[in-house]
Amino acid sequence: MISIEEVKKLTELARIAVPDAELEELRADLDRILDYVGQVQKLAGEKVDRDLPEHRNVFRDDREPHEPGKYTEAILKQAPDRSGDYIRVKKVLEQGR
Amino acid sequence: MQNLTIKKARELLDQKEISAVELAEKYLTKIEKENTALNAYISTYNSAKAMAHAADQQIKEGKQTALTGIPFGIKDNILVEGEYASACAGILQGYVATYDAEVIRRLRKDGAVLLGRTNMDDAAMGSSTETSFYGPTRNPLDLSRVPGGSGGGSAAAVAADLCIAALGSDTGGSIRQPASHTGIVGFKPTYGRVSRRGLISLASSLDQIGPAAKTVEDAEIIFNAIAGIDPLDSTTRDGSVGTAKKVIGVPYDLFGSHLDADVSDVFDASVARLKNLGYEIRDIKLPHLEYGLASYYIILPAEASANLARYDGVRYGLHVDGAGGIGDYFATRGAGFGKEVRRRIILGTYVLSAGYYDAYYTQAIKVRDLIARDFEEAFKEVSAICLPTTAAPAFKLGEKSSDPIKMYLEDLFTIPANLAGVPAISIPAGTVEREGKHLPLGMQLIAPEFGDERLFNIGKQFEANNQTPSV
User: Fold this and answer.
1) Which chain A residues in 43-62 lie under 8 Å from chain B, judged by CB atoms?
2) B345 and A16: CB-CB below 8 Å?
3) A40 and B98: CB-CB below 8 Å?
4) Does residue B195 carry a catalytic annotation?
5) CB-CB: which of B315, B330, B376 is closest to A16?
6) Which of A13, B130, B375, B433 has its CA 20 to 30 A from that of A20?
7) Distance from C-alpha of A15 to C-alpha of B117, rounded to nearest angstrom
8) pLDDT, tens digit, for every residue of B374-389?
9) How large is the average pLDDT for residues B305-334?
């Protein structure tokens, strides 16, 4: 049984504001879903051996960058708060730290 | 000129019986007249007419491809440069795509005409297109019913002939299930066959872009145009599969008890049709598939919680002010995510958190591997697997909204193919009657990895063998 405290903590981790009035419904939904998906534990004893392709990183060559500023305007136009060529956000560092 | 297929439209265009501009205008006018009742399209693209002109130019120069001048609907989670793209999510309102998705780049090069963005469930999470920021889409076959989801807009647009074909995305059935509910063809490629660059990510190990089309042949034409290795999507891959034998497996255990009698009859009639085409039908066991839904609803929320962490109101989309920088995140995400999206993100956060990771996520991955192995074992004996796409026809708007599990069960038969990364197609199989309306049902075929062609081959034969049993 998932608790309201656990749900509140999860909303904090996920950075989603959930009004107090909606927490119980969310909790009950999660409970029901976790109950259903918990079925996967029934197969805890099984073993799988599969031939899987090797994970590999794919990088492009570190050369020939595009010309500076080519995409800047198109990208910055999207920003909700913009100051010249900067995206503006609220201060995250306290004074004197 | 009703209900054109790609092939028919190609003939008309090439024989100069209609221009690409005329064809586009015909569809845009139709959308203007008929879309309000359906809400299949969110909006049409500003660049649609320009694309039609470019297509006419391409035809004039004799450089047309199979898709030149063909009008498409595009699911709202696929980026078309210069046009809005929001995945029908509150949190992406106002975002204008800054680049073309790879599939759009390819369609554009081929001269396809993109008409507009089609409706979908919020952030692609849903099986009914009811959670969309823009309101639900209605099923053209019965306006009181859903078209399925998350790609209900694309399916409805094709079914209502508001485009010749559409692109969708399929993470757990979002192309195939709506195809079943609206009586069209829906195809999910082998994972990695089609680039996901420019697809707004839901679950990166499950998402694939695919066609919603009127015929299997049309789906094949579109697949051939959009598939291919993309150096900018490192999950694209190529491969091959052996020659097919004419043996199809049916996992009766998996769905036997779930189907209404008339739905079962339609499926049995489909199997009979395959037999008539010379396929040997074998009862097969896929013993772990019944856990697929549980596995999926751990893996998907986990991946979605990671993928949707990027929506913070800083660089694009919705911004809602909160107390301080971090408060902005809480306020923006609280306002921008619908209930279902929020539910899944929280669920994903839970199953990935220390203390629960092993019990849920690690186990879900193991179940996924077991399912993939079930398929591998089965495909040693059969060349394709056949089962219903959905257990029932389209349900009424609101019917499943109050119970998340009830809604999740819609994808019971479609999810396994996403978990295993194998290709799957839904083809119209017949109809059943509900309250005086004839509602379509889809037959689903699944092939091994890289066996996409097999599905088109069997599908085209199935379509040509033309009895559509109604019950």
Assistant:
1) 43-44, 46, 48, 50, 53, 57-58, 60
2) yes
3) no
4) no
5) B330
6) B130
7) 30
8) 999 999 999 999 999 9
9) 96
pLDDT number for residue B467: 57
- The pLDDT confidence band at residue B6, using thresholds 50, 70 and 90, is very high
Counting beta carbons within 10 angstroms of the beta carbon of residue B285, is it exposed (0 to 12), middle (13 to 18) or buried (19 or more)?
middle
Q: By CA distance, what is A33's nearest residue in B?
A: B405
pLDDT at B469: 47
Q: Which amino acid is at B252?
A: Y
Q: Is B264 a catalytic residue?
A: no
Taking an 8 Å cut-off on Cβ atoms, the answer to whether A7 and B324 are in contact is no
Specify the pLDDT at position B72. 98
Q: What is the CB neighbour count within 10 angstroms for residue B355?
A: 7
C-alpha span between B400 and B244 (Å, rounded): 40
Look at the block and give the residue holding tokens 């904090």.
Answer: A12
Helix (H) or strand (E) holding B54: helix B48-60
State pLDDT tens for residues B325-355: 899 999 999 999 999 999 999 999 999 998 9
Interface of B with A in 185-244 (CB under 8 A): 231, 234, 237
Q: Per-residue pLDDT averaged across A55-74, rounded? A: 88
Active site residue B174: yes
Chain A / chain B CB contacts < 8 angstroms? 141
> Which residue among B127, B150, B169, B201 is the active-site one?
B150
The token pair that represents A30 in the structure block:
């999660």
Q: Is the peptide bond before B180 cis (omega within 30 degrees of 0)?
A: no
Query: Any idea which residue has 């780049």 for tokens?
Result: B105
Judged against a pLDDT cut of 60, whether residue B468 lies above it is answered with no
DSSP B169-192: EESSSTTHHHHHHHTSEEEEPPTT
